[in-house]
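Table S2 (text version). Query chain:
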Amino acid sequence: MVGAEMASLFAQTNVYGGASLCQSEHLADWNSESVLSVFDDIDRDCANLWRNTFLFKAISNADFLGLYIADDLNDPPVVYMDHEATIHRPIAPTLDHFLNEWEKLWYVGPEYWELENFIDPDTGYINADAGNLSTLHARFRGNDG
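Corresponding structure-token output:
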């Protein structure tokens, strides 16, 4: 894949994603001390977030989705974990909320730049009604929307 083909993958009219979660053979590696301690000497707040998050989804850009378990083990929020430590934030109050909203988005991404148009400005959480859902669905169908 070269030139125009590669550029077309990242054009705004193209979307991709999938509902692949919990690649069980990798869970232990993702949640290992070597991964969770990566920010210990760089940013204490960031390190604390990584250490208190159970990573369940590796994203193709080296970011993760995880469950922030420090405050609520029974129904923890879903957090977006950026490998460059620029975007660390909750994107859903619960896993159920995340899965319901992500389904409405036809499992786009879940890279943050794919989801950010569907982040509710009032709650900060993913919400399919916060963005232009009909345009997204049209793009999946191969239309410009």
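Notes on Table S2: The chain has seven helices and four strands. Residues 95-104 form the longest helix (10 residues).
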